[in-house]
Amino acid sequence: MASKLIQPERLRVLNDKKQRSAKYVLYWMQSAVRTMDNHALEYAIQQANELDLPLLVCFGLWSEYSEANARHFHFLLEGLQDVQGNLKRRNIKFVVQEGEPFAVAEKLSQDAALVIVDRTYLRQHKRWYRQLSGLDCRVEQIETDVVVPVETVSDKREYAARTIRPKIHKKLDQFLVELSTTAVNNSSQAMNVDTLDLSNIPAIVENLNVDQSVRPVDHLFTGGENAAKATLRRFLANRFSDYATHRNQPQTDDVSYMSMYLHYGHISPLHIAVQIKESGSGGENEKSYIEELIVRRELPMNFCFFEEDYDKYSALPNWTQKTLGEHRDDVRPVQYTRAEMESAETHDDFWNAAMREMIYTGYMHNYMRMYWGKKILEWCNTPEYAHETLLYFNNKYFLDGRDANSFSNALWIFGLHDQPWKEREIFGKVRYMSYAGLKRKAKMPAYLEKVDELVERAEKAWNSAD
Ligand SMILES: Cc1cc2nc3c(=O)[nH]c(=O)nc-3n(C[C@H](O)[C@H](O)[C@H](O)COP(=O)(O)OP(=O)(O)OC[C@H]3O[C@@H](n4cnc5c(N)ncnc54)[C@H](O)[C@@H]3O)c2cc1C
Question: Is ligand 1 within 6 A of the CB of residue 275?
């Protein structure tokens, strides 16, 4: 049953200032770009009602945001558009201003009794939270993009899924509680605060000083909480029943496509988990999906929170650095430059298809991501360069890139959160994947065909937009 309760473990007080009398409560929406199942928003509403003030919600649109390009901004803006419409219906004003996000929040905090912010675990955000704590008013933070708050799960960097799993499962009953909404007592709709007109997204994106060569993929994936929920409903109705058996079958579409929505905060993992459980399907599909959505997704959050160097090769455990180091000088029978890989013209047709899926759709099936990453390790002259190359492609093309999940999974290719395997050339004891194995396990001709169709669709959409 849904509840208004926001578990105290989700709350952190970022400074010891008192609430002060002012014009409004400010919620700086940075990572949870949604109006439903958002603990930070509901907490901000409850606080505004208690103080008998309106609530203002703000977002800072910043073209210098880490590695973001036209594709990422288009999807993000679709989410902002949904938030604006959905908050309006709840009598809450949503302000989007161009500028460094902390500077936008700082300026608006001058008239705020209290500032609320949501939470993520990456370096830039941690820097912002430190800056926020220096504001003149009280600042509180609410963790809403994980099912179980990261520090409640564990007080250290976890070794692997098997070590974090029992810790997460122990807390699930307490945190798997859907959130209900509270209405605001005081509307902020009439407040006169400058905000960007979000009605023409392509025009906004074109004017941003970002890499325009990575084109939006809205012909395939529409951003925003409305599209996220519709995508989830379609998955549950049509494809969830095959999830456990097809999860490693890249020629099928029997996955949820939730990662991009989770990355932008367009959907809450809690909402997805509750819907999965309520679908009544149960059994292996539910078990397998919950394992991916909660255990496998929240392990990267633990990694990035506790590991400052989460985007560096040096963050790998000692055993993988040692074994890859011992094989540093092994002959690489095949080598490609980054440019050769990006043109998707290697000798490996499966890998080329995966690269094209990524470039043309902003997505790649998980099983292909594993194979694709392993080949980058095999084809680069050093493991360090392979890691840099993999992250470069990952964060440039994927809609779900630049996420805790990106950094952790990039290192998974090099052995993070994995175990030693039989020793071999180049890889040492790090897990290897072969062309023959992939061919045997999945229906690869069908995958190649599927990617050809996706590329054709993208080219058609992009040509008609030109
Ligand atoms: C080399 C490599 C790079 C990756 N890069 C990213 C990335 O940039 N961003 C990203 O979100 N995921 C990344 N992943 C993890 C995974 O591939 C994607 O989360 C998944 O493919 C997203 O598709 P989906 O939502 O349809 O997944 P579904 O199978 O429907 O899974 C549901 C949800 O569970 C979580 N999940 C599924 N598989 C994994 C996994 N292996 N690890 C962690 N969480 C998982 C995701 O949040 C996903 O949305 C990467 C994996 C590898 C091997």
Answer: no
pLDDT in tens, 262-317: 999 999 999 999 999 998 777 999 999 999 999 999 999 999 999 999 999 999 99
Among the atoms of ligand 1, which is closest to the Cα of residue 269? 47
Task: Give the separation between CA 346 and CA 340, rounded to whole angstroms.
Answer: 7
Burial zone of 351 (CB within 10 Å; 0-12 exposed, 13-18 middle, 19+ buried): buried
At 375, which amino acid appears? Answer: K
- Ligand 1 in reach of 370 Cβ (< 6 A): yes
Taking the C-alpha atoms of residue 62 and residue 78, their distance in angstroms, rounded to an integer, is 15
Q: What percent of the chain lies above the pLDDT cut of 90?
A: 96
Domain made up of 146-181+225-306: CATH architecture: Alpha Horseshoe (1.25)
d(CA 322, CA 309): 18
Ligand 1, atom 53: closest residue by C-alpha: 370
Domain boundaries, the chain: 7-145, 146-181+225-306, 313-465
* Ligand 1 midpoint to CA 400 (Å): 8
Query: 105: CA distance to ligand 1 center in Å?
Result: 31
